[in-house]
Structures are given as C-alpha cells and as structure tokens.
Design a protein that fits this description.
PX Domain, Monooxygenase, five-stranded antiparallel β-sheet, 18 helices
Length: 482
C-alpha cells in the first residue's frame, strides 16, 4: 500500500445530516504504517443562524454553541479545509463508524458549500474505510491481542463502543466524545490490530478497493462468502454466510445476497410483496413466528468485510457458531431455485417511487450535479465573499440558486443586500418559528431543554450547558423579534 491514512472524527449538533450540522472536526494523518505525519487538525464550526443545536448532543460532547461560535470557522471555511485534507491524492479517509454516520455529514456539508460531495472518496487513488468494521471483523475471527468487554445491556454481546475499547486497551488520551481524543483512540486501535494481526489487517485493507471486492463476488458460480456486519446476531459474532444472487435493480455499487446459514424454508415461493414488507419491518414489530427474510444488500464501495470460505478455519466456524451442514443444505436449495430467489430479491430491493426533497439543503440525492455547475464551484471559491453577490453565476441545476443564496447568508450575512436580508429573515422565521426543514422549532427546543433539566437536576455541569442552550435560543429568537 502507498499513500496515507486520514483518521478523522466529527462531533455534531444532532443525528440527521439533512437538518443539522457539524460542531467539531478533528483529523490525524499517518503513513500506511500508521506513523503520524503532519500536524493534527482540530477545529470548531460556527453554528449558522438557521438551525438550533440539539441539547442532548451538547450534553454528550460538552460543546456549547457559544464555544463553537467564539473559536470556530464559518462552515464554508471549515469545509474548504476538510475538503483539502480529504481530497489529497492517495488518501484513505477513515474513522470509527464513519461510513454509517460521519461520512453522511461530510457529504452534505461539501454539497452545501459547493464542493463535489463524492469525488474525494475515489479520485486520485483515494478510498474510504472504517475501523468499526475492522474491529468487528477482528472480534469475529482474530480476537487475540485486544481486550474486550461485555455490553451492560446485553451481557452475551461484546461492546464495540470506542470509549470502552480505548479505556480497556490503554488508548485513551483526553475525554471521550472530544473529536481529537477520539481520533487518537482510533489510531491506537488500528496500531493494535496491525501489530497483533498483521496478515488480517492487510487482508481487510484490500477491501477498500471495490474492484477487489467485485472479484470476490462470483454471481455465476454462486460462491458463498462470510460477511461480517452489524446487522447479524451477536450470537454469531456478527457473521453470516451469504451468496450473491443478483445485481441491484438500480445501484451498480450494490449487490444482492441471500443468507445460507439460516433456514430458507420455502423462500422461493414466498409472496413478493409480503416478503418486502417483512424485510423493511423492525424485528420487534414482525408478526409472532415471522423472521426477517434472509436477504441483504452489500455496497462494494464501502469496504464490506467479505471472506471466502476457503480462507476460514474450523475454529472460525466454531467461534461464530455457524453450522457448515446447514450451509451446504441451503446451497443446494439455492442452486435449484436461483432464478426465483433472484427475482424475489430484486423485488424486495426495488426502490419505491423516487421522491424529491422539498428543501435544497436536503436534496443531495436528488441527482448528480452537472459538470458545468461544478466548474462554477471553482469560481465561487476563488471569489471574495463581499463580491459573491455581484457575480451572477448561471447555474443549470435548479437546486443551486437557493443553495448559493443560503451559502452566502449563512457564512457572510453582512454582505447581503437589503432585499436579500429580508429573504434571509423569512427563511430564518420558517426554520425557527415553524420548524420547517429543521430538527427543532424554538418552542420544541425550549421544551427539550426543560425535559433535560429535570433529568439533570443534580448535575451543575449539565445544567450549565443547558443554560447556554437557552441563551443561544433566546438570542436567535430576539434576532427574529420573537
């Protein structure tokens, strides 16, 4: 391997990247041998005026909006730096649970601030990875060398929480849920795995290349693979045996699989619509005696942990409690009914009628941005903030004009014209007074803070953070005249 790893972590003001934003970003760049290079990066992002930070998030991270506002960069400047770090050639960007959480915030943030949301993930030899997936795979197949603890809520399962792994393995430097501290803990975990399981580390690292992943997937021969992912039972160490059954009906980076380590019964003759309903129903909401249909979709561009059965030892099957005789019996059934099962899988994963988002901030997935508009992005970044309003950029994409107005208003409201200031005030009123396309309205935010005051009545530190949230909300309300 060549290039570098960029380990990163975010602290955010909520859980939905369409409606809330990043509070803090931190990153450490290392060589592929995990030797630290460059100066670590840690920055706050100033919260814009059109959303209310989640009080629960502030209690977890200890970050108040006043702190981020005083010490942070406006979002446009923050994402200029984030993009430059992640887009450096031959960079593998990774963290802990970044593929499922942090990367979504990065994509939406890049989109809002006129950077391509995806190119940094694959251009110029770049890739993505996730230490959460690595740790889960190590626990399933090569657990030696790492200290593990049981989950408090499910004692028969192992805790994969970063703070637990860091504490138990002597990797914690600083507080949990502080971005740079979490990055250092993640780098420490990577070094631990690479030291104790070097061959497995290099095997997992190759899965960053989707072409390598595609070579493992043999749709013609229906070759079984072990798949390790959070959707599978802790009783099996989050492992399952899956067989590729079909390409995804829409997404060329997704493949459809069927599990062969669980009973298939009469799956080939199952009702397609009922099967789809059951698949997308929470397990605890399924009818009594009904299991979730044994299909799964795997994204080849998200470093899935797939392992050929020929690379597994008998001890691996014993540790994951997978019965090879069940697998062989189901493989015979699968080969007999492959066409029916492939058709059923495509029906289950066929997307429902596409619906566009009604707000441009949430409309990232409404379509790729045309090259002509992406060419304008470079002009936007080269233009001084006070001159952006006079440039008259001619966008082709219908999302871009409103997104551009909000980009200017959030980051440099002092340069808006009188008419633009009135439009911005209307947008703020819709978000804050009415909660339109926002995670909280002013009233809902006040109610949430009061609920948390009751729960934290005996904790002065938490009450101080809630005081700060109240003060921030009151300041926004006053700016609206509310």
């Amino acid at each position: 391997m060549s290039g570098s790893f960029l380990f990163y972590d975010l602290e955010t003001w909520g859980l939905d990247p369409r409606k809330t934003r990043i509070a803090q970003f931190a990153a450490i760049r290392t060589t592929v041998d995990l030797e630290e290079i460059d100066t670590p990066v840690s920055l706050y992002v100033r919260p814009a005026a059109d959303f209310l930070p989640c009080p629960e998030s502030a209690l977890i991270t200890g970050i108040t909006p006043q702190l981020a506002d005083a010490e942070g960069l406006v979002e446009a400047e923050a994402f200029d730096r984030i993009h430059a770090l992640m887009a450096e050639p031959d960079t593998c960007t990774l963290g802990y649970n970044t593929l499922k959480f942090d990367d979504a915030f990065v994509r939406f943030g890049l989109y809002r601030n006129f950077h391509d949301a995806y190119e940094r993930e694959y251009r110029d030899g770049n890739s993505r990875w996730d230490m959460f997936n690595v740790i889960r795979a190590v626990h399933a197949l090569r657990p030696e060398g790492i200290q593990w603890r049981a989950r408090e809520d499910v004692p028969e399962a192992t805790s994969f929480r970063l703070e637990h792994l860091a504490e138990d393995n002597g990797l914690r430097h600083g507080m949990a849920h502080e971005a740079l501290s979490d990055v250092r803990a993640t780098v420490g975990l990577a070094r631990l795995v690479k030291t104790h399981q070097p061959k497995f580390w290099h095997y997992l690292a190759r899965l960053r290349d989707k072409r390598h992943v595609q070579q493992l997937i043999n749709l013609t021969e229906l070759t079984p693979l072990m798949h390790i992912a959070g959707q599978y039972s802790p009783a099996n160490r989050n492992a399952a045996i899956v067989v590729p059954i079909s390409e995804h009906p829409v997404n060329r980076n997704q493949m459809l699989f069927v599990r062969v380590d669980v009973p298939l019964d009469d799956l080939a003759s199952a009702d397609p619509d009922l099967t789809k309903t059951h698949y997308f129903t929470r397990r605890d909401a399924l009818p009594e005696g009904v299991s979730r249909p044994p299909f799964t979709d795997i994204r080849v561009n998200e470093s899935p942990t797939l392992i050929p059965l020929s690379d597994l030892r008998d001890a691996d099957f014993e540790r994951t409690a997978i019965d090879k005789t069940v697998v062989e019996r189901n493989l015979a059934y699968l080969r007999k009914h492959r066409n029916a099962l492939a058709s059923l899988a495509r029906h289950v994963f066929a997307p429902s009628k596409a619906s566009s988002q009604n707000d441009v901030d949430a409309a990232l997935f409404d379509g790729f941005i045309a090259p002509a508009d992406k060419a304008l992005f470079r002009q936007i970044h080269a233009c001084p903030p006070d001159a952006l309003g006079a440039e008259g950029f001619r966008f082709q994409d219908a999302r871009m004009p409103e997104l551009f107005f909000r980009y200017r208003a959030r980051n440099w409201p002092e340069f808006l014209s009188f008419e633009e200031q009135a439009c911005w005030q209307g947008h703020l009123a819709a978000c804050l007074n009415n909660g339109i396309n926002a995670q909280y309205s002013l009233q809902a935010h006040a109610e949430k803070v009061e609920q948390l005051r009751v729960l934290n009545a005996d904790n002065p530190h938490e009450l101080g953070i809630l005081d700060a949230m109240d003060a921030w909300r009151h300041a926004l309300a006053q700016s609206l005249g509310s």
